[in-house]
Amino acid sequence: MLFKLIILGAIAYGIYRLMGGKILPDKKSNENENKKLPDDTMVECDTCSTYVSVSEAIKYKDKYYCSTECLEKKKES
Ligand SMILES: [Zn+2]
């Protein structure tokens, strides 16, 4: 009987530890999404290798493109 209580106690403690680590809401993932490069950063177009500023570039699947034409070309190929 005592042995059973010890096991139960260990399980309860394990659950408590698990909950304790994950009880706080995950705020960090949201912050990372809003993180942006400064507008004057130059990025290379993935299709024609022209450098354009981030504010003018088109971002698609983590790559930058100088124009919609370049983006379309990449999508087609
Ligand atoms: Zn381009």
The helix fraction, in percent, is 40-55%
The number of domains is: 1
Main pleated sheet: 2 strands, antiparallel
- Our estimate of the beta-strand percent is 15-25%
Low-confidence stretches: none
Q: Give the overall form.
A: rod-shaped
**Small-molecule binders:** zinc ion
Number of strands: 4
Q: Order of strands side by side in the largest beta sheet?
A: 1-2
Structural category is: alpha+beta
Distance N to C terminus: 70 Å
Number of helices in the DSSP assignment? 3
Rg (C-alpha, Å): 25 Å
**Mean model confidence by pLDDT:** 85
Order of helix and strand elements from N to C terminus: HHEEEEH
Written account of the structure:
The structure is a single chain. The chain is of the alpha+beta class and 77 residues long. The chain has one domain (2-76). It is 48% helix and 16% strand. It is built from three helices and four strands, in the order H-H-E-E-E-E-H. The radius of gyration is 25 Å and the shape is rod-shaped. The relative contact order is 0.11. Bound molecules: zinc ion. Zinc ion binds at residues 45, 47-48, 50, 65-67, 70.
Main attributes of the structure:
single chain; two-stranded antiparallel sheet; 3 helices; rod-shaped; binds zinc ion
List the helices and strands and how they pair.
Layout: H1 2-22, H2 28-34, E1 42-44, E2 51-53, E3 58-60, E4 63-65, H3 68-76
Zinc ion (ZN) is lined by residues 45, 47-48, 50, 65-67, 70.
Brief synopsis:
The protein is of the alpha+beta class. Helices cover 48% and strands 16% of the residues. It has a two-stranded antiparallel sheet.
